[in-house]
Amino acid sequence: xxxxxxxxxxxxxxxxxxxxxxxxxxxxxxxxxxxxxxxxxxxxxxxxxxxxxxxxxxxxxxxxxxxxxxxxxxxxxxxxxxxxxxxxxxxxxxxxxxxxxxxxxxxxxxxxxxxxxxxxxxxxxxxxxxxxxxxxxxxxxxxxxxxxxxxxxxxxxxxxxxxxxxxxxxxxxxxxxxxxxxxxxxxxxxxxxxxxxxxxxxxxxxxxxxxxxxxxxxxxxxxxxxxxxxxxxxxxxxxxxxxxxxxxxxxxxxxxxxxxxxxxxxxxxxxxxxxxxxxxxxxxxxxxxxxxxxxxxxxxxxxxxxxxxxxxxxxxxxxxxxxxxxxxxxxxxxxxxxxxxxxxxxxxxxxxxxxxxxxxxxxxxxxxxxxxxxxxxxxxxxxxxxxxxxxxxxxxxxxxxxxxxxxxxxxxxxxxxxxxxxxxxxxxxxxxxxxxxxxxxxxxxxxxxxxxxxxxxxxxxxxxxxxxxxxxxxxxxxxxxxxxxxxxxxxxxxxxxxxxxxxxxxxxxxxxxxxxxxxxxxxxxx
Amino acid sequence: xxxxxxxxxxxxxxxxxxxxxxxxxxxxxxxxxxxxxxxxxxxxxxxxxxxxxxxxxxxxxxxxxxxxxxxxxxxxxxxxxxxxxxxxxxxxxxxxxxxxxxxxxxxxxxxxxxxxxxxxxxxxxxxxxxxxxxxxxxxxxxxxxx
Lengths: 526, 146
Fold this sequence. Notes:
The structure holds 2 protein chains of 2 kinds.
Chain A: H1 11-33, H2 43-68, H3 77-96, H4 101-118, H5 133-149, E1 158-159, E2 162-163, H6 165-192, H7 195-214, H8 222-310, H9 316-344, E3 353-356, H10 357-367, H11 369-375, E4 378-381, E5 386-389, H12 391-407, E6 415-423, E7 426-433, H13 465-475, E8 480-484, E9 490-497, H14 513-525
Parallel strand pairs in A: 4-6
Antiparallel strand pairs in A: 1-2, 3-5, 6-7, 7-9, 8-9
Chain B: E1 8-13, H1 17-27, E2 34-39, H2 42-50, E3 63-66, H3 75-84, E4 93-97, H4 102-110, E5 115-118, H5 123-140
Helix pairs in contact in B: 2-3
């Protein structure tokens, strides 16, 4: 929320100030003219007013301290909070004491302490870094306790029905310090235009005014009640700060909630667009590949027919040319089939079900029994977990990795090891072989579509196996990578999440917001 | 049951002339004498089977080879209609097509295709497939008479 909200018009504050000044002037005029001798003795009312004020003071102090660390624009929270703690404690003691010397002492001490602490706003922030509120609270409590215990040692505050010089010094001094603080805050307001600065300037001004009014007052007279009202008003302003603050926080919350809702709508729309784009792409890939096969078959088959029917009329070169043509057609068909297979992987999203990985692997091994026996491989399989996965895709994943291990074996007797371990809520699988290994500089490239590291006549294949594996793993929200050194075999690692909420739209298995986030996380890590 | 020596009638439903020619070539090498008729789209195929219009005296085929990608009525619709027709559904229909997609295979069997074969690129494989079709459907399997 911008600081603009804090730069509010000064009109309400000026209006309040004017009202208070006029009210006070009116009351003083009444005192001076016809109510000079009026005394309104009412201890319960007084205790109530001071009690309320003390309570507001302590609440305000807590709020200011709480905000001090969180609001970068708050510069004077600590001195003001300190002043309010002191005033709150001492005025509470004042409210609780019966009329007497200690009674006046407590209030005068409160005014002086408050003024002294709040005038610390003049000291630059660096200089008052160590201002601790707890020491102030403890000191004031000490003063209260000490004053109660040693009440007779306190300086005289009242003599012959009038306030003594000591009392007047304390109150006027405190009031003056309040005025000084108000001046500083007003100066700050002129540069910062910070609404809080203006508010607290008014607050300090009112306390200063109350201190000044003490000068012409006597216990229970009109002036005496007037400055009590002025102080109550000041506390009321403090309360308005709390209310304003709460409203500000609410607005901030409402705004950020709205922004969050907007962002979420945008994200959902993006996901919908992405889903649609994915579907279109996959359909395109499917249709293109499918329709490409037919002319390809024409080229391949009729070239072969040519060879069959008229091969004997061609010389060696001619027959060789035909061989290249036919091989080209075959290879192209393989590529198209591979592309189709790749595009079909997860075209409808993984169909998740509780899957026994052991059973899936067993299925793959029995399916590939011939290839495995022919390679003479020894298989070691560790315990495999049960988790949420697409059974078909998992089968393809295992199959590709096992067939790769068989394909790229070395002269050593082939040993393949499949294992799984749980790590951080994910299942970490490893398929290790002792084959020819992979140069680490190609460790990322081999997962790219159609990337091969060997010439075609040495090792067959189109180079999509690992790209398909990567797509399958990513669709499940996992990662896949390889650790290998040339001549020392290879270990293919992949992770599958262990626990997962089923996708919201399980039937169509479409990409959901959750999956996008997961894939984004998976992509980001690798 | 196919009597040895008796002419076998096969209806090939295929729109691609190259594929028609290849199929003819392959069937020309079979032992059993085969009369291969061709329909180049789905509507023509059904007219032929029902003996409609110009096909009034067309022989009833002993076997149908059906491509799925046809103009006008596509192969799936032809298959459905054949297998829903009381008189036609006894004729074995072998789907012979390029697609290897799981959904196409399932769809064909769901519509009661008798088998599904994918056309290979390699000519040798294609010849072998045709010979296997001949061996299985025309020698080993018993076909309904009439």
